């Protein structure tokens, strides 16, 4: 939550409560950051962020932020309550859309279009091109959308059998 003061004097006594939409909670380690002073609070596993007694200098801004998590990936419309002050009247609520990406628990390499949990690669001919899908999966073996990292795939020759680490 960023609070901006366009006035020529400091704003004092800033307070707000941000009660999150359903399924959002403060992370186990909330990583609360408060540049507004006063008392900010975000209880681990809690469903809100609060600030009481904050101050923002003239022609400046301050920020209160926290890490949140959800067991359900998706977009969440989040709005604070009214932002109150002791010397500058009340401001409207702050709002934004939070996007929670699914946690990637594992990856699977499957034939193109194969099932993300049970799919596999069938025998291929060495030296011939092939098309496969690399699927990011969540803990329930469903596709985990939103993964943007890098994944390495190693192909091995299992014609002689044995442990994968010993194969060419």
How would you describe what is shown here?
The protein has 168 residues and is mostly beta strands. It is built from no helices and twelve strands. It has strands spanning 2-5, 11-19, 25-26, 33-34, 39-41, 48-56, 60-65, 68-69, 74-79, 95-100, 106-111, 132-137. Strands 1-7-4 form a three-stranded antiparallel β-sheet, with no helix packed on it. The chain has a three-stranded antiparallel β-sheet with strand order 2-6-5, with no helix packed on it. Strand 5 and strand 6 (48-56) form a beta hairpin. The radius of gyration is 25 Å and the shape is rod-shaped. The protein starts with a strand and ends in a 31-residue tail after the last strand.
Number of helices: 0
* Alpha-beta classification: mainly beta
Q: Identify the overall geometry.
A: rod-shaped
What's the helix-strand series? EEEEEEEEEEEE
Uncertain regions spanning at least 5 consecutive residues: none
Strand content: 35-45%
Number of strands: 12
Overall mean confidence score, pLDDT: 88
Profile the largest sheet. Answer: 3 strands, antiparallel
Which range best describes the helical content: under 10%, 10-25%, 25-40%, 40-55%, 55-70% or over 70%?
Answer: under 10%
Q: For the CA atoms, what is the radius of gyration?
A: 25 Å
| Spatial strand order of the main sheet | 1-7-4
Q: How far apart are the first and last residues' alpha carbons, in Å?
A: 54 Å
List keywords for this structure.
168 residues, mainly beta, 3-stranded antiparallel sheet, 12 strands
């Amino acid at each position: 939550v960023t609070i901006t003061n366009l006035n020529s004097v400091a704003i004092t006594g800033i307070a707000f409560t941000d009660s999150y939409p359903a399924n959002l909670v403060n992370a186990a380690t909330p990583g609360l950051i408060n540049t507004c002073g006063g008392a900010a609070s975000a209880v681990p596993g809690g469903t809100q962020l609060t600030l009481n007694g904050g101050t923002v200098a003239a022609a400046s801004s301050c920020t209160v932020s926290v890490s949140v998590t959800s067991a359900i990936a998706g977009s969440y419309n989040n709005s604070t309550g009214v932002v109150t002050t002791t010397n500058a009247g009340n401001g409207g609520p702050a709002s934004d859309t939070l996007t929670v990406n699914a946690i990637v628990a594992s990856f699977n390499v499957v034939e193109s279009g194969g099932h993300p949990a049970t799919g596999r690669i069938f025998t291929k001919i060495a030296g011939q091109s092939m098309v496969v899908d690399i699927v990011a999966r969540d803990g329930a073996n469903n596709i985990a959308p939103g993964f943007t990292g890098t994944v390495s795939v190693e192909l091995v020759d299992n014609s002689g059998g044995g442990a994968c680490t010993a194969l060419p």
